[in-house]
Amino acid sequence: MIKKDFLWGGAMAANQCEGAYLEDGKGMSPMDILPSVQHGRKEAMYHPEIAMNTNYGYYPSHQSIDFYHRYKEDLALLAEMGFKAFRTSISWARIFPSGDDEIPNEAGLLFYDNLFDECQKYHMEPVVTICHFDTPLSLTKRYGGWSDRRLIDLYLNYCKVLFQRYGKKVKYWITFNEINMITHIPFFGGGMVVKDEEHMDQIVYQAAHHQLVASALATKMAKSINPEIQMGCMLAAGSFYPYSCNPVDVWAAVEKNQEVYLFIDVQVKGKYPSYAKKIWSEKKITLHMEEGDEAILSQYPVDYIAFSYYSSRLTGVSPEIKGNVADGNAITTLRNPHLDITPWGRQIDPLGLRITMNDLYDRYEKPLFVVENGLGVEDIIEEDGSIVDDYRIEYMKKHIDTMIEAMNDGVECLGYLSWGCIDLVSAGTGEMEKRYGFIYVDRDNEGNGTLERKKKKSFYWYKDFIKSMDETKE
C-alpha cells in the first residue's frame, strides 16, 4: 500500500550532471580524468594510472549537462512532474578541493545551499549522497584513496561541514553510493589505483572496512547534530538466481548473494556476518581492525537501506555456460534466457525487483528506498520534435507495479527515485546516448549540442502517474 508520505521522484549524481569541473574553486574528481568509452574509458576505469598520464582531449564530465548553471531550470521541470524527492550527491572536491584542506570552499557550499533552497521552494525532499564515486583525486595521488585509514578522519571532517551546514535542509543522507562496488571498480568506489601485481582483494576489503567505520561514525555525528536526520547505506542490488535447480548452482547463488550483502550486513546489523571469515580465508585476506572498530560498527547502524536496481543476476558452475555473460553493472552475471536485454547489455527483469526487495527486507527488517531504477537506451527525436519513449514508460510501469507488489507483501519502502531523471553522462561508458531521462538534453557523445532541455513522452506519463498516486493516497 502506497502511503501518504511516499517519495516519488528521481536521481542524479554530481559527477555525472554538474559539469563546471574546476569552477568556483572545485578540485579534480575521478570522473574528470576519464574519457568516453570510444576513447578508452573502460581501460582508464580499471587502470586509472593510465588516465592520470594521458591527455584524451575530450572529457565528458567537464561540462556534462551543465546542471551547475542550470539547476533552477532543471528543478522547475522536475517540480512540474510533481516530484516529492530529488536525489543528488555533493561533490567532495567542490567543498574540499584537495580533500584534506583546512578550510572548506565557501563557493562550493553556497552552490548546495542554493540547490537545497530551490528544492524546498518546490516542496521537494533532497536525498543526498555524501560520496558518490567522488573521492577527490588529490586523495588518490597523496594517500592512495580509501586504502589509507587516514581518509576516515578526512571524510568525517567533510561530513561535519555538511551536517552543520545542511542538517536542517536535508533529512535523508546516504553515506556511500553502492558500497559493494568498491570490490569491482576500486577507482570509483574508493579512489584507489590497484596495480595488476597487487593483492586486489586485500586492498579493497581493507578499504571497505575503513568506509564502514567512517559510515558508522558519520551516522553518530549526524544524530548528534540533528536527531531527525535519517542515515542510509546503499548497495548495487539485484538478487543472484541459480542457473538451474542443481544444488551446486543453488549454492553458487547463495555465495554470490553473501558477497553482495556483506557490507550492508555490517551497516545494518552492526557486525561482520559469520560467513565473512570464510570469504576472507578464500581470498587470502587479513583484515586489520583497530581497537574500538567493532564497538563503533555495532553502536551506529543506519536507519534505512537505499539501493539501485537495474536487473537480477544469474550464476552457475557448469563449464558450458561460463562464457555466456551479460552486463551486470560491473558485476559478472550469466545471460538469462528468459529475459529481454538492452543494446547496452542490461537484462530486463521487473519481477526481480520484487524478489530483491523481499530478500532485503526479510534479511534486514529496515525500511528500503529505491534510489536508482531506469532504462538506459538511445532516444530518437521525431520529425515533429517529439520523443516517443514508450519503451521507457513500459519499463517503469512494470517495475513500479512489482515494487508495489513487494510493498503488498509487507515490505516497507520509503520511495521510488528513477535514475537519470534528466539525461546525464553515463558513469560506466561516459556516453550521453545511453539516456535514462524523462527530459532530453541536446548533447552527443562527443560533447556537441546546445544543452537544450526537451520533454519526452515519459515526462508527461510520470507527471500523470504521480498525480494519480496523490489522488489515491491513504
TrEMBL record:
Keyword line: Glycosidase, Hydrolase
GO MF assignments: beta-glucosidase activity
Gene Ontology CC entries for this record: cytosol
GO BP annotations listed: carbohydrate catabolic process
Keyword Secreted part of the UniProt annotation: no
One Pfam family linked to the record: Glyco_hydro_1
UniProt-listed InterPro entries: GH, GH_1_N_CS, Glyco_hydro_1, Glyco_hydro_1_AS
Superkingdom, taxonomy of origin: Bacteria
Keyword Hydrolase set for record: yes
Active-site residues annotated for this sequence: E372
Family listed: Belongs to the glycosyl hydrolase 1 family.
PANTHER family: 6-PHOSPHO-BETA-GLUCOSIDASE, GLYCOSYL HYDROLASE
Protein name: 6-phospho-beta-glucosidase
Organism: Lacrimispora algidixylanolytica
